[in-house]
Design brief:
heterotrimer, A mainly alpha (316), B alpha/beta (559), C mainly alpha (289), A: 316 residues, mainly alpha, MetI-like fold, flat, C: 289 residues, disordered C terminus
Chain lengths: 316, 559, 289
């Protein structure tokens, strides 16, 4: 009996040794990144506790007192605040719109660019199309106002000259949402095509040649070769985007928002900025952040499992 | 090429290993140690005996060191705030007069509160800090992050004559908690008592043969005249006419009009319980003012696009400079600031030499006074974080910076360089470049206990102030100053201790207030009541009512 | 990509669409450019749309004549190169081991890493950490804390997945070690993704300023975008003005526009240089033999 056990044990040890002998370089490579994550990500994470505690600027995390209601005081505070609930709704709404309209856009554009027959033109287009990404939202909002202001905006002046009524791009809640989404697409679509273009270059050109020989039309080639070729990239990016469904950009809504559309332009990030950061309510800020993180993780778990069910490799 | 790249990578990896491996990983311990080691010193036992320990003739026997916060505005052509001519002047003076070494810690103006948060958390905050927002200090104090100044002030009163002189007891004890006796911060002195003004286009009035409005009806009539005579006044650009301009910060930009609606019979209690918002949102009568603005807006008398432009957007200023705006309310000297680039000067350049704005007083309240309700002449709050272990030295610094000759030098600088003396003895400031440039007007960033020019003699000060505007006749400035200060009513300061309902609510309530007022003005007249009342309900439900209630209770229990 | 040289209607439609897109993307930048070349008065009267009015180069002369900006440009360029190399190195050594199914603890490591994308405690904890590491106000604080982006790492890893397993298996049979396989097989085949991620890191570092805002007080090491932020930050000015009772003269609009151009153009130029790495997978196909 003893013999068998120790034999099994030493067999395990030997296979462990063999495994390490073969794989030690991989672990060596991983050492530096893991250290990095521990130091720069996990150690500060200890402070996430303050979501459940009464923040004090002079105490260390471990000394701070627990918040009321079993530590959930600030979560309750957030959820009982009407503004927070509106911000939550707006964040979801704007992010969903961004996803539905904005996620396919760079894919379509990448395919379009790929189909361009004229090499030089393709290069020029690629370079120009990603330029808006470099403008900060402060600048873009200034330009947007120049164009879309109800009485003085160039576009509205033009529309009025044609005899129509000016369009409230930025001062009506409904219109503002679409302006917000489309400006977001304009700013990021070119940039986001880069990943897809890189993915497309990984497709074996022979496949296209074979298809041509078979007499396939352009559209069929795109559908049967290009798209499947970049499918894994699309899935990964989709999963990651879903994980950010409650994530909240600050710059865009802050820069584009104004008091007439505050019922749609207030998002979680601006709520946290006004109440948490400027109001010096640190525990509240962290509680809201934690809430966003947890939901985000739930979403990527869900998206990942769904992807796996379809036979795709997930992100872990 | 590949070899070089891999060598480079190896180098980077090795460097990183060394760089990253310094110090301990335990981020929690250091701030903890700091907090602990300082708990004893701020208790007051060391410093109340400050006198006996070290001072001879107001000078410390052993050199003390303190750090002082100074704003870094990052302005173009500015000097390094911690190390320039004026910083040196202060350092030399402090060393000479008190044997105190001063070090300035620059803090970026735009992210000031975040930086102070960081520094406080890390135990690195400067010994003397400055902020405009008292609730911030109250929040820090509640966390135990601020030194109580009361015992130190009491013990060292004789050493602080200039501080008491300048600030007066009112400002020093302004924030003293009546129950605990704690003073978390003292208030700097506001000497420039002009705040807001109403401006109108003098040339347009002349062209249309209207005299300067002295009543609300006359003012409205002038606006209507501007609108109806757009072709005459602006020719081909008639469609750009803006009789009255305003911004989303309605409370500030329509202040005179709104304040004139507050009944003069309003009691002191009402001023205390309802007047905590610095734009007077809850005061009786305000709704009438907003309703008037609403009718003006719908009659085309107000700039249609005003709600879309946020703080700092220059569009409205450009409209004024280009000559399209007939009247507006703003800071008391707004059109005259910034030298050649000022609104008035740009107006002259772009709309002709006679064009210009002049200050007027049209908004009388029901007693016929141009009432402007003000809190006491307080300004910035100066406080000592808990990490300050030289409270006496810090107080001496504040005293030194409040001495007339010292602060005057900081405010006007060297003769011939940053100012010149005119015939009647008044001072005219000169803009300069290089190390002696003033990064902030009158070096306000250094003179933290005062806001506004003070040359000792009131008349001389006003005359000198009036000379400080390029391209504008000093009589215009004087008129602006008079109109702006006429009717100043300083409300009594009532301090019943901390109002907890106000903690953390400031920015959120201000935003709601601005949204409510803006939306009310823009609404169609038949919807006005609904929009205003709903907005007000939201304001009250989100914390406004709680503040009113707590204040009422505080008042009632005391009186 | 080899195509038949007969251009069809479809080609022209695509060209038309691309032209529209180019216009829409280019025009705003052109506006800023035009503004930087116009006179201040023209901007006040809002006369500038796409073409400079009252053309002058004063704004550029002022900005480029100020050593503060020139130095910031140079420093940001140096910083960007160092940061990009560091990040590419870190990303590669992190992504590569994770593609091996045989690696024990792989699932755990993946989760361990990905979770860091979501959980973040805020400015103060990060500040305290950097203070304890004694990294504040040192140039390395702009390189190391942001060295490894999990997002980019995932991208690289999925690219590596796309490389046929057969290639590495045959190499392993030949006795190649893991590092050799990385250097000799994976890296050469990953040019597109390396170019992409290098671009992402470079642009991220060039455009980033929020870390410098909080952790870098030494003016010598301010990245150019931080200077731009200070200039454009009129957002706070009005609040400050009503508190302080005065306004600081902000920079003129033309100067602002010129600074924006100067801060943006250098990084825009990088992409065209990297474009050659985005050519089609001729390399991949060739290796198959």
């Amino acid at each position: 009996m003893e013999h068998k056990k120790s034999a099994a044990f030493s067999k395990k040890m030997r296979s462990m040794k063999n495994y390490m002998k073969r794989h030690w370089t991989l672990y060596l490579l991983l050492m530096l990144p893991i250290t990095y994550f521990i130091i720069f990500k996990y150690i500060p994470m200890a402070y996430i506790q303050i979501a459940f505690k009464e923040f004090s600027i002079v105490q260390s995390v471990w000394e701070m007192e627990w918040a009321d209601n079993n530590g959930f005081e600030y979560f309750l505070k957030a959820f009982s605040n009407r503004d927070f609930l509106y911000a939550l709704r707006n964040t979801l709404m704007l992010n969903l719109l961004d996803l539905i309209v904005g996620f396919p856009a760079p894919i379509i554009l990448a395919i379009l660019l790929n189909e361009l027959a004229f090499k030089k033109f393709k290069r020029i287009t690629q370079t120009i199309v990603y330029m808006p990404h470099f403008l900060s939202w402060i600048i873009i909002s200034g330009l947007a106002l120049q164009l879309f202001a109800p009485t003085n905006g160039f576009v509205n002046i033009f529309i009025q000259k044609l005899g129509f009524e000016s369009i409230p791009f930025l001062n009506s809640s409904f219109h503002w949402v679409w302006t917000y989404v489309f400006l977001g697409i304009w700013q990021s679509v070119g940039w986001n095509t880069i990943i897809y273009l890189a993915a497309i270059t990984g497709i074996n050109p022979e496949q296209y040649e074979a298809a041509s020989v078979d007499g396939a039309s352009r559209l069929r080639k795109i559908w049967h070769i290009t798209l499947p070729g970049i499918k894994s990239t699309i899935i990964i990016l989709l999963i990651l985007s879903l994980g950010r469904i409650l994530g909240s950009e600050f710059d865009r809504p802050y820069a584009l928002g104004n008091m007439l559309v505050s019922d749609v332009s207030n998002v979680i990030a601006t709520f946290v900025y006004t109440n948490g950061i400027r109001g010096l309510q640190f525990s509240l800020t962290t509680a809201v952040g934690l809430f966003q993180s947890v939901i985000g993780v739930i979403f990527i778990f869900g998206a990942n499992s769904l992807a796996r069910r379809f036979g795709e490799r997930g992100i872990w | 090429m590949k070899k070089i790249v891999s060598m480079l990578m190896l180098l980077v990896m090795v460097t990183m290993l060394f760089a990253g491996c310094n110090g301990s990983d335990d981020s929690s311990s250091s701030s903890k140690d700091n907090a602990e080691s300082n708990e004893s010193t701020s208790g007051g036992d060391e410093s109340t005996n400050g006198n006996s320990e070290e001072m001879v003739d107001g000078k410390f026997v052993e050199t003390r060191k303190i750090t002082v916060e100074v704003f870094d505005r990052g302005n173009d052509g500015g000097s390094t705030p911690e190390d320039n001519f004026y910083a040196e002047f202060i350092k030399e003076g402090m060393l000479r007069d008190h044997n105190i070494e001063v070090e300035f810690i620059p803090v970026p103006r735009w992210t000031e509160v975040e930086q102070i948060n960081n520094l406080l958390a890390a135990g690195d905050a400067p010994d003397i800090c400055v902020t405009y927002d008292y609730p911030t200090i109250q929040t820090y104090a509640n966390m135990g992050g601020v030194t109580d100044m009361a015992p130190h002030i009491e013990a060292n009163k004789e050493l602080l004559p200039d501080l008491f002189d300048l600030l007066t007891e009112q400002n020093i004890y302004y924030n003293q908690d009546p129950n605990e006796g704690t003073i978390w911060a003292i208030e700097a002195r506001l000497v420039n008592l002009a705040r807001i003004n109403t401006f109108i286009r003098k040339d347009w009035l002349e062209t249309l043969n209207i005299k300067e409005p002295t009543t609300e009806e006359e003012f409205e009539a002038a606006l209507i005249a501007f609108r109806d005579n757009a072709n005459l006044l602006l020719g081909g650009e008639a469609d750009r006419m803006i009789p009255f301009s305003i911004s989303f910060d309605v409370g500030w930009r329509a202040d005179h009009l709104l304040q004139s609606k507050i009944p003069s019979s309003t009691t002191e209690k009402e001023h205390y319980t309802l007047g905590f918002d610095d734009r007077h949102l809850l005061m009786p009568g305000i709704k009438d003012g907003i309703e008037l603005l609403n009718s003006w807006y719908n009659d085309g008398l107000i700039w249609k696009d005003f709600p879309l432009y946020g703080s700092g957007d220059t569009t409205e200023d450009n409209l004024m400079k280009a000559g399209y705006v007939g009247a507006f309310m703003h800071n008391w000297d707004y059109p005259y600031r910034n030298g050649d680039d000022s609104i008035n000067n740009s107006l002259k350049r772009l709309a002709g030499d006679e064009a210009g704005y002049v200050a007027i007083s049209p908004f009388k309240n029901d007693s016929g006074i141009y009432a402007k309700y003000r809190t006491a002449p307080v300004d910035r709050k100066v406080f000592f974080p808990i990490t300050n272990d030289e409270p006496v030295a810090s107080l001496l610094y504040l005293n030194w910076i409040s001495q007339l000759e010292n602060r005057m030098f900081l405010q006007i600088g060297e003769e011939g360089v940053t100012h010149e003396v005119v015939e009647n003895g008044a001072i005219r400031t000169i803009a300069t470049t290089g190390d002696k440039i003033m990064n902030s007007p009158s070096n306000i960033d250094y003179t933290i206990t005062i806001n506004g020019l003070d040359l000792g003699d009131k008349a001389l000060t006003i005359q000198s102030m009036a000379l400080g505007y390029v391209g504008v006749d000093s009589s215009v400035i004087q008129q602006a100053y008079e109109k702006s200060t006429d009717g100043n009513v300083f409300l009594e300061n009532h301090n019943f201790g901390e109002i907890t309902a106000e903690t953390g609510m400031g920015p959120a309530l201000s935003e709601k207030r601005d949204t409510l007022l803006t939306q009310s003005i823009v609404a169609s007249p038949d919807k006005f009541d609904q929009v205003f009342d709903n907005g007000m309900k939201d304001y009250l439900n989100s914390g406004g009512q709680a503040i009113i209630d707590e204040r009422t209770k505080a008042w009632d229990t005391t009186y | 990509m080899i195509r038949s040289h007969k251009t069809k209607i479809g080609d022209w439609i695509i060209v038309a669409i691309c032209l529209i897109i180019i216009l829409v993307c280019l025009l705003p930048l052109l506006t800023v450019f035009a503004r930087s070349l116009s006179s201040a008065d023209a901007l006040i009267k809002n006369k500038v749309l796409l073409w400079p009015v009252e053309f002058n180069l004063d704004a550029y002369k002022t900005v480029l004549g100020d050593s503060k900006y020139v130095w910031a440009l140079l420093w940001t360029a140096i910083l960007t190169v160092i940061a990009t190399l560091t990040s590419m190195f870190m990303t590669t050594i992190c992504a590569y081991p994770l593609i091996f199914d045989s690696l024990k603890g792989r699932k755990f490591l993946n989760a361990f890493i990905i979770l860091t994308m979501y959980f973040n405690a805020g400015t103060i904890p990060n500040y305290l950490l950097l203070k304890d590491l004694d990294m504040l106000n040192k140039p390395m604080v702009l390189v190391i804390p942001g060295a490894l982006s999990v997002f980019n790492m995932i991208i690289m890893r999925s690219f590596f997945y796309g490389i046929p397993v057969s290639l590495r298996e045959s190499a392993q049979i030949d006795g190649a070690g893991f590092i050799q396989i990385l250097l000799k097989i994976y890296m050469p085949l990953s040019k597109p993704v390396f170019a992409t991620l290098a671009l992402f890191y470079a642009v991220g570092r060039w455009n980033g300023f929020s870390d410098a805002l909080m952790y870098m007080n030494n003016r010598r090491y301010y990245p150019i975008q931080l200077l731009l932020y200070n200039i454009l930050n009129n957002i706070m000015q009005v609040e400050v003005a009503s508190q302080e009772g005065f306004t600081m003269p902000g920079m003129s609009e033309t100067l602002k526009a010129a600074t924006v151009m100067i801060a943006t153009i250098p990084i825009l130029i990088v992409y065209p240089f990297l474009q050659k790495y985005f050519i089609s997978g001729v390399t991949l196909g060739a290796i198959k033999e």
